[in-house]
């Protein structure tokens, strides 16, 4: 009786470095640019890990992509900015797509898309480049928003740090589809299947004076 | 004209250690157990950061809480298990609650609840304790599910690693509420307010033969 967990599918592409090679479930890996970009573009959030005095730190921050870089922003005078421009970071993007409910406990899982990348962040300091990237960021979150809001002035831009890291050393890992129960468990009398999950937007809560203005075209879901 | 970003609110509780003291927006911090537990209990996912040969790694995994510990599981023979029991980890739980859309670009933000903790994972090896914790995990994801599924056998349990880390050295950080535009920006003619976001469940996709079985009582949202 063959075990459906033992997949014969192969990864897409080849790892860009030894440390990006997916070892657990290698058949779920993809290393091509298109796979990495699709996951980063769907995300609002990443987790950035860095090392200070030998201790790991893992900080959530908003992110977006331009070309071959993942961007984040923070306040200029912060630990995050100092740490990320001074050493290797690991950046992880994780999208949860569903609960995978199997007949057997062990075969429960989640459907997901994730990217893990390694690199050193670069500090983007040119004011025009910063203004353009912050506009791209705003439009990534809400399409068309950059043109409508009060743009950052020179002082606000100067206080903002814009950091970017290359997507060159990245891996993607994706689980999709139904649970994979053992043949001997298929008759177990419990509901099995997938329950989709997604980050969905709800009814907007306007500020006083905004109820009559056009609503922002926020996507129904970020996924 | 006072700047509403300069809040005079204070953190709840005191940091359990120097490295857990929130420095950016300290008024958003909470260090009491109740605040930390509420955020961990609402989460399906955490990001675990660890250091190997000086390089940070950030790996997403499912998580749950029992008492004063956060638990994760993996396959026994994995890098993750070896790394986490051999050094300090940083574990981060991040829940995205909404987009904060301000009149000015700079005042855009997100509403969120997050926990960052430091500690060394402990390997829970007692088979009875492991079986009980995996049942708690199943019930965290879908209430009542542990009693319905085919339970793990001894070999399956032995191949599973159950790791836990204390919640003692944790901080919580929460942003909630509307955008905080400068008074001079309040008349800018663009919609401002909050667009709620939440991880919502969709219509279940049953496996063949499961359509007539009782649906799992998956929460409408994990939040
Ligand atoms: C939403 C979600 C929930 C998950 N829940 C669990 C869980 O509960 N238990 C569990 O064991 N695993 C879980 N995983 C998978 C987990 O992220 C790791 O892939 C797995 O634990 C193996 O980790 P490792 O460090 O031992 O991997 P290895 O395969 O040894 O890692 C080697 C390299 O592969 C790459 N890589 C590893 N994981 C990923 C990834 N997720 N995405 C992209 N590249 C990657 C990195 O470059 C890494 O350095 C989950 C993943 C996601 C996205
Ligand atoms: C969904 C989400 C999106 C975010 N987006 C951004 C963004 O785009 N830009 C940005 O600058 N910041 C963002 N933040 C805040 C970010 O997580 C950090 O709090 C902030 O960047 C300061 O980081 P630091 O390392 O400089 O903090 P410091 O305040 O110097 O960190 C000191 C200690 O405080 C604790 N701590 C720090 N951050 C958190 C946290 N989030 N939760 C719990 N404890 C914490 C940790 O113990 C840390 O070691 C976001 C947070 C969340 C949850
Ligand atoms: C008794 C219950 C469970 C046991 C014994 C168990 C065991 C395991 C083991 C051994 C692995 C590692 C697989 C590998 O990398 O080769 C694993 C991975 C995983 N488990 Fe579980 N698990 C249980 C329940 C759950 C539940 C309830 C969920 C979530 C709904 C879950 C989600 C996952 C995910 C997402 C992975 C990662 C798979 C991947 O690498 O792509 N598990 N589990
Ligand atoms: C031109 C546009 C923007 C500029 C110049 C800007 C600038 C900044 C700066 C300087 C900080 C650090 C604040 C501090 O820690 O004191 C910050 C934090 C943050 N920004 Fe932005 N930002 C912009 C747009 C956005 C957008 C579009 C979003 C997301 C919708 C966003 C989300 C956040 C979040 C979540 C934080 C963290 C706040 C906290 O620490 O609690 N920003 N931003």
From TrEMBL, chains A, B:
Region spans: Disordered: 1-26
Biased composition (Low complexity): 7-18
Gene3D superfamilies, A to Z: Electron Transport, Fmn-binding Protein, Chain A (2.30.110.10)
Superkingdom: Bacteria
Pfam families named among the record's database cross-references: Pyridox_ox_2
PANTHER family the UniProt entry points to: 5-NITROIMIDAZOLE ANTIBIOTICS RESISTANCE PROTEIN, NIMA-FAMILY-RELATED PROTEIN-RELATED, FLAVIN-NUCLEOTIDE-BINDING PROTEIN
Protein name: Flavin-nucleotide-binding protein
């Amino acid at each position: 009786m063959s075990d459906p967990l033992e997949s014969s599918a192969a990864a897409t592409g080849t790892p860009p470095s030894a440390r990006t090679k997916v070892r657990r479930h290698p058949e779920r890996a993809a290393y091509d640019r298109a796979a990495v970009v699709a996951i980063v573009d769907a995300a609002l959030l990443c987790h950035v890990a860095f090392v200070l005095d030998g201790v790991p730190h893992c900080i959530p921050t908003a992110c977006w992509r331009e070309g071959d870089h993942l961007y984040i922003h923070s306040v200029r005078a912060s630990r995050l900015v100092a740490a990320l421009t001074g050493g290797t970071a690991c950046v992880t993007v994780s999208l949860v797509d569903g609960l995978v409910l199997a007949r057997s406990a062990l075969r429960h899982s989640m459907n997901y898309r994730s990217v893990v990348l390694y690199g050193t962040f670069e500090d983007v300091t040119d004011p025009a480049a910063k203004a353009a990237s912050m506009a791209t960021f705003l439009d990534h979150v809400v399409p068309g928003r950059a043109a409508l809001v009060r743009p950052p002035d020179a002082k606000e831009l100067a206080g903002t740090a814009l950091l970017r890291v290359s997507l060159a050393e990245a891996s993607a890992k994706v689980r999709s589809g139904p649970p994979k129960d053992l043949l001997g468990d298929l008759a177990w009398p419990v509901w099995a299947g997938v329950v989709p999950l997604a980050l969905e937007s709800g009814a907007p809560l306007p500020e006083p004076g905004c109820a009559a203005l056009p609503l922002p075209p926020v996507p129904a879901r970020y996924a």
